[in-house]
Design goal:
Elements lengths: L1 H14 L9 H12 L26 H24 L8 H23 L2 H4 L3 H20 L2 H22 L3 H18 L5
Helix pairs in contact: 3-4, 4-6, 4-7, 6-7
Keywords: Membrane, Protein transport, Transmembrane, Transmembrane helix, Transport
Organism: Aythya fuligula
Pfam family, one: Got1
């Protein structure tokens, strides 16, 4: 028996290539599908967001595994948001549970976006995004760690304010652009002539 093990090791040492290991049949099929679909970018005429990155997030996953994981995270986010909506009428009685479900839904939605966008999502977050992430972490800590309903409600309020700040940060022009749009809308409403 010991001789059989030694023979196996000798055989593997002789027939192992000095370069990187050969791709398995599943990896070979994925490479052929990718080449048929228009190169490393994915579908013809449309590039995957992580295709141009040199260090993609989770490099061991194929694009289909990323899509499946992002879909699973999106489904979990929808489930958490739906359960949080069921607790909305009981918001005063079950504020901690509502905030916990809403925060977990937000976390799953951010994970789905991070799986699709790769590390580009985390490279230069804006001030609003950083505030939202901090408020999200505080809400989860207050709900799970401290188990305090008032601190969880405070974290949820901060989360809503930070979400508004992140939305303003994401708009072209930021707050100044929003003020300009509001001014244009107000001027259009003032000049509008109502038909009799």
């Amino acid at each position: 028996m010991a001789d059989l093990g030694q023979q196996l090791r000798d055989y593997l040492a002789r027939h192992q290539a000095p370069g990187p290991p050969a791709a398995g049949p599943q990896q070979q099929e994925e490479k052929e599908e990718e080449a048929a679909a228009g190169g490393a970018g994915g579908w013809p005429g449309w590039g995957w967001p992580w295709a141009a990155e040199t260090e993609p997030c989770l490099p061991g996953l194929s694009r289909w595994q990323r899509l499946a994981a992002a879909g699973l995270c999106a489904l979990l986010a929808a489930l958490c948001f739906g359960l949080a909506a069921l607790y909305a009428p009981l918001l005063l009685l079950r504020a901690r549970k509502f905030a916990l479900l809403w925060s977990l839904g937000s976390l799953c939605a951010l994970a789905a976006a991070a799986l699709l966008r790769g590390p580009a999502l985390l490279r230069r977050p804006g001030r609003g995004s950083a505030l939202y992430a901090a408020a999200l972490c505080w809400t989860l800590y207050a709900a799970l760690g401290l188990r305090s309903a008032p601190l969880t409600a405070l974290g949820a309020a901060a989360q809503l304010g930070a979400a508004a700040a992140a939305l303003l940060d994401a708009l072209p022009g930021g707050a100044a652009g929003l003020r300009r749009l509001a001014g244009l809308g107000g001027a259009a409403l003032r000049r509008r002539v109502l038909p009799l």
